[in-house]
Design a protein that fits this description.
By secondary structure, the chain is of the alpha/beta class. 30% of the residues lie in helices and 27% in strands. The chain has a 17-stranded mixed beta sheet that branches. Helix 6 packs across helix 9 and helix 7 packs antiparallel against helix 8. The radius of gyration is 28 Å and the shape is globular.
């Protein structure tokens, strides 16, 4: 904000002649280079500060600072009516509608801290410490005067109340914004209603969307009459038309259809097909249940799940499932409905080109500038590889329990014997590819102990050991701010390749029965490349089937020959 002074008497006369008025001009402050033409037909109340180049036209402004080169035009009310923390510290009842996993939001919140607060309810001391940090941050943001940053365009809006607005923000035609923060480069569009919120850097909320008690993360987009309540959305999530209630939407959560409902659950790198739905209660003890859909899950059109339920990473869900399954032991699978039962095809998604396409497109679609959320995009990683190793052990145990069985039951799902054997083969190939990829990166380092269980903290692959160490440091008061906590997670991320290599080397050693030699590691890298190539041949075949001439039904409607129809098909599909 530039140096300000009280508006002069001769300037007041010129401003009033242009149709503007003030409750009292003594609390209106302007820049040294103020031009009375900056105020046109406006009403100023309380303390109003106007920086260089800012303009207020046909608007009522009360208790606000307007930053350099910003425009407030055609706004019914831009006002701060009371001392506000501008959405910081708002409690969001995420995942459990009854509030058992409430997260306090703030304007620099990362997905990792939000994950800890939602999931680690078994660590009350840690949660209390984090909440104290957030409360301190919220109080530091508190003021009786609102702020509009530099180079903003606030036009055609109705009511903006107790909203802190960062730099380069656009608000165009919004109906109601109340008690929140619009961080730098965010955008709010026509007919939007938002209450008790944080919109992070580059977030976009547009076209009649209604949001209440939500965090909308960096470069997220809520659009086309989307409705969201009590939810958190993290990096690059994009939701339109449908509805979210009590949702933890990790990075790249996508839902585009009017009939899709995300409710009382955790999602990340997720895609909801049309008509996707979950129910979170059994009409007994209330809306107390939750579902978790681990990284990369997809719902086909019409998919339905009755909570509680849990799916393994990169699972494709088709059909209706109401038996409260737990398939977390089997990543990269298909979960289908067959004859009214939930049937699992372990590892089947490893053959799907759709999964490969998803993994490749996510980093290419990262629009963030600050990157507050730590995100690992690696296809081959300890988290999924570890799950596949457990899956192989589990499938062998099932098979050994009854070698002649046609089907096996596991945690409310059915696994058919042929699918079990195929799953073992697919997982083993993917494990070899994973170990080779990780051994080919990073460098051996004693300081990077990747042993033990790995976790996926809302996009970040990290060891449980390191996570527990960070939280213990919070408990001891060694990490006293959320920024310090985030820095520790980032420090691990900076050496991720080294930690992943260490895990892979230890795992290879366990398989060999001794510490691997350099030659054995090189052999594993080569074997991994071969396994990766074999998997890619499978997924490429899947892609080719989707591009085949058999899929050209309905193309070339007015063509008279197959050659013409092929030309139409290739032109539309972008095929050579």
């Amino acid at each position: 904000m530039t140096q300000l002074r009280r508006i002069a008497q001769d300037e007041i006369a010129r401003v009033e002649a242009a149709g503007s008025s003030a409750e009292t001009w003594s609390t209106v402050f302007v820049s040294e280079d103020f031009d009375p033409a900056q105020l046109q037909g406006c009403r100023l109340e309380g303390r109003v500060e106007i920086a260089s180049g800012a303009r207020i036209c046909r608007s009522r402004v009360a208790n606000y600072r307007i930053g350099e080169n910003s425009v407030v035009e055609g706004v019914a009310a831009l006002e701060c009516r009371t001392r506000s923390r501008f959405g910081n510290g708002t409690e969001v009842a995420v995942m459990n509608e009854c509030g058992g996993r409430t997260v306090k939001i703030y304007d620099s919140m990362s997905a990792q801290i939000a994950y800890v607060m939602a999931v680690y309810r078994h660590r009350p001391q840690t949660l209390a410490a984090l909440e104290r940090m957030i409360e301190a941050h919220a109080e530091a943001r508190a003021s009786e005067v609102g702020t509009v940053g530099r180079d903003c365009r606030i036009t055609g809006a109705k009511f903006i109340r107790e909203v802190r607005i960062g730099d380069r923000v656009t608000v165009d035609g919004a109906s109601m914004l109340q008690n929140g923060t619009l961080c730098d480069d965010s955008r709010i569009g026509v007919d939007v209603k938002v209450y008790d919120f944080i919109a992070a850097e580059g977030a976009r909320i547009d076209n009649g969307t209604v949001v209440e008690r939500c965090f909308v993360g960096e470069c997220c987009r809520l659009d086309k009459n989307y409705s969201a309540a009590e939810s958190l959305f993290f990096a690059n999530s994009h939701c339109e038309n449908g509805e979210a209630a009590a949702v933890f939407a990790g990075p790249y959560t996508v839902s585009h259809h009017k009939s899709s409902l995300l409710i009382a659950g955790m999602f990340s790198f997720f895609n909801a097909g049309s008509g996707s739905n979950q129910s979170n209660h059994l009409f007994k003890s209330g809306a107390v249940h939750q579902s978790v859909h681990l990284r990369g899950c997809k719902f086909a059109s019409g998919a339905y799940i009755m909570s509680p339920a849990l799916e393994g990473a990169f699972t494709m869900v088709m059909g209706h499932h109401s038996f409260h399954h737990d398939t977390s032991a089997f990543p990269c699978s298909y979960l289908i409905e067959k004859e009214g039962r939930s049937e699992l095809m372990p590892g089947a998604n490893l053959k799907s080109y759709g999964a490969v396409r998803d993994i490749e497109k996510w980093p290419a679609r990262d629009r963030r500038r600050l990157r507050r959320d730590v995100i690992n995009f690696e296809e081959y990683n300890p988290y999924v590889a570890q799950a596949m190793i457990r899956a192989v052990d589990t499938l062998h145990t099932l098979a050994d329990s009854d070698p002649d069985a046609a089907t096996y039951n596991y945690r409310k799902v059915i696994v058919r014997a042929p699918m079990l054997q195929r799953g073992i083969a697919l997982y083993n190939k993917a494990i070899v590819a994973s170990l080779g990829a990780m051994l080919g990166k990073g460098a051996p380092a004693e300081a990077c102990d990747g042993s033990g269980r790995w976790l996926d903290l809302a996009g970040q692959y990290v060891t449980k050991r390191e996570t527990e160490a960070i939280l213990a440091a919070v408990d001891r008061g060694e990490l006293a701010t959320t920024e310090a906590v985030d820095a520790r997670f980032r420090r691990f991320a900076a050496r991720y390749d080294d930690y992943a290599r260490d895990w892979a080397e230890r795992t290879l050693g366990a398989l060999l029965g001794h510490a691997p030699s350099a030659e054995e590691i090189a052999d594993a890298v080569r074997a991994g490349a071969n396994a990766h190539a074999a998997l890619r041949r499978m997924t490429d075949n899947d892609r080719d089937r989707d591009r085949s001439w058999e899929m050209a039904v309905s193309y070339g409607l007015d063509c008279d020959s197959d050659d013409e129809r092929r030309c139409d098909y290739k032109a539309v599909r972008g095929l050579e």
